[in-house]
Every structure is written in structure tokens, then in C-alpha cells.
Amino acid sequence: MDYANFELADGGTVLVEVDPEDGVVRVGRGGEIVQAVGKTFDESIAHVRDAAAAALHQFQSMTRRPDEVEIKFGVKLDAEVGALIARTGVQGQFEVKLTWRAPEAVKD
């Protein structure tokens, strides 16, 4: 297994399992490699947060605004680029659920 060590903005670190780099030969006990990451975890995940906020804004600005919006997607952490939206198959994937509720009946 390879790991990336992300620093947290408020101190501390989080160790994340990452895909092994091509061409890296494992040596030593256990064959584990820990890479230091140039960005903090907070900086890395901020890009994904911004993408989620942009998607949410698009659905909330619909003419008939949904009562609920649920957006699901996978986040992949990479030692070189930080956080990115994970892909399934060949393309990235969002799962979006929009909910509209019927207006409540007017009571006499």
C-alpha cells in the first residue's frame, strides 16, 4: 500500500491510502511508501467543495426550485494533485436527487 500524508490546516495530519505510482519499486519492511503532500488536506478538499457548491447553485436556481437537493459523488485523494472527483468507468459521475413536495392543503 502507498499512503499520502496530508497536513491539516489546524494542525495534525491525516494519512490517506493512494494508488501506487507507476515505476516505483517498493523496498524495505512491508513495502509501504508514505509520500508527503505539498497541499494541506483543507486546501485539497476545498476544490471539491467548490465544485459541489457550483452544482448545488445550478439546481437551486431552477425556475421551480426543488425542496431538496442531494448530490453524491466520490472523492479521490492523490499525493500529487490533492483531492479530485473520483471517476467510475471512463467518466466522472455525479448522482443527483431532486425532490419537490406537494404544497400542503389549506385548512379551514
Could you please describe the fold and organization of this structure?
This protein has 108 residues and is an alpha+beta fold. Helix content is 19%, strand content 39%. The chain has one helix at residues 41-60, and strands spanning 2-7, 13-18, 33-40, 68-72, 75-78, 82-85, 87-88, 91-92, 95-99. It has a 3-stranded mixed β-sheet. A two-stranded antiparallel ribbon has the order 4-9. The radius of gyration is 20 Å and the shape is elongated.
The overall pLDDT average reads: 75
Task: Give the termini separation.
Answer: 66 Å
Extract low-pLDDT stretches: 25-29
Helix percent band: 10-25%
- Strand order within the widest sheet? 2-1-3
SSE blueprint and pairings:
Blueprint: E1 2-7, E2 13-18, E3 33-40, H1 41-60, E4 68-72, E5 75-78, E6 82-85, E7 87-88, E8 91-92, E9 95-99
Parallel strand pairs: 1-3
Antiparallel strand pairs: 1-2, 4-9, 5-6, 7-8
Which labels suit this protein?
elongated; two-stranded antiparallel ribbon; 19% helix; alpha+beta; 108 residues; single chain; three-stranded mixed sheet; 39% strand
